[in-house]
Amino acid sequence: MLRARYAPYRLLFKEPSGTSRGIMTYKECYMVQLSDDTHPGRVGWGECALFRGLGSDDSPEYERVLAEACSLVGKCPFDEVLQRLDEWTSIRFGFETAWQELNAWRDYPSRFDSGEQPITINGLVWMGDKATMLRRIEEKLNAGFRCVKLKIGAIDFDAELDLLRMVRNRFSRNEIELRVDANGAFAPTEAPRKLEALSHYDLHSIEQPIKAGLWEDMARLCACTPIPIALDEELVACRKVTPELAAQMLDTIKPQYIILKPSLTGGLSGTNEWIKAANARSIGWWITSALESNVGLAAIARYTASLHTTMPQGLGTGALYTNNISSPLCQEGEVLTYRPQGEWQYPELAWK
Q: Which residues have a Cβ under 8 Å from the Cβ of 53 and sit 6 or more positions away?
């Protein structure tokens, strides 16, 4: 018989992390564990990576829905449990990835766990004052990153332009790929001017220049932008991912790229729908983590490796937290890899 249980876990940031939505000092999540009586000792871990203030499933009902899903496991087909979670993206992600681990990721095969398929990632520079962001950029470059993503929109725009100017004065586009993420910070009326100002610094792309939900405004921007635009929060805002919704959004906005966060964009199945719709329209995409613990990050890495994409991905490194779960994940320069000789060290949790 298949069984499930869950436990809350609070991840603590080493230092406050700033986005255009504010400062974060901790992040809540829930761990879920699947086991099968027919295979004693084998368990599958998943992370229900709730994201307060961003995820479409941030609701007071969250833990009740999670507990109910656990109670259904073993009483009905597992696919039926997942169907009930169609509108609870991070819970679905936790259950899907726990199921995949329980079954050795047979639906998404790769050589990531053997250490033979490292994933190239971008270096993420969090928002801060100008001096702090410059220091963080230099740290990423010294660490060997050749693709760096900067969070913008929280400090003075002219100061952010100065930062980009300094980086470009030192490194050409052939040496460093620069991505920026505005997290919807620009007003629609000011976005064209700001995109034009940013275009002088040879940027690869800008994520979500205006807030989600303004499809017509975003469509106008994408039609005439001097910088490729990648949709991010636009996808996260979708409560339920369907082929029809994905087609409608992409046909309306016509972005140059989409950003896929599996824990926030419908789980693995929802992310598959977005990729299918994007590929059919020659829209580029890449995978991004969303501040998960190493449990969720490893699952996203395994999934990403199975897609055999070569462009730098937006996967974290697990280094943001003081109490992250120790794992075989390892960052080596600009690649995320898995050490098969390593071990997971799970904490004692209050399982329910």
A: 21, 22
Q: What is the DSSP string of 299-327?
A: HHHHHHHHHT--SPBB---S-SBSSPPB-
Q: Domains in the chain, please, with CATH? A: 2-102 (3.30.390.10), 119-338 (3.20.20.120)
Tens of pLDDT, residue by residue over 2-48, are 999 999 999 999 877 655 556 778 899 999 999 999 888 899 999 99
pLDDT digits (tens, 9 = 90+) for 217-229: 999 999 999 999 9
Residues known to be catalytic: 151, 261
Sign of CA pseudo-dihedral 159, 154, 191, 170 = positive
Strand runs labelled E in the chain? 2-19, 22-36, 43-48, 119-120, 123-125, 147-151, 177-181, 203-207, 229-231, 257-260, 284-287, 329-332, 335-338
Helices and strands in the chain: count of H runs, count of E runs = 11, 13
* Two tokens, residue 335: 């690649």
The pair of structure tokens assigned to 303 is 């999934």
Residue among 160, 117, 122 at smallest CA distance from 143: 122
pTM flag (> 0.90): yes
| Strands 147-151, 123-125: pairing kind | parallel
C-alpha span between 78 and 2 (Å, rounded): 9
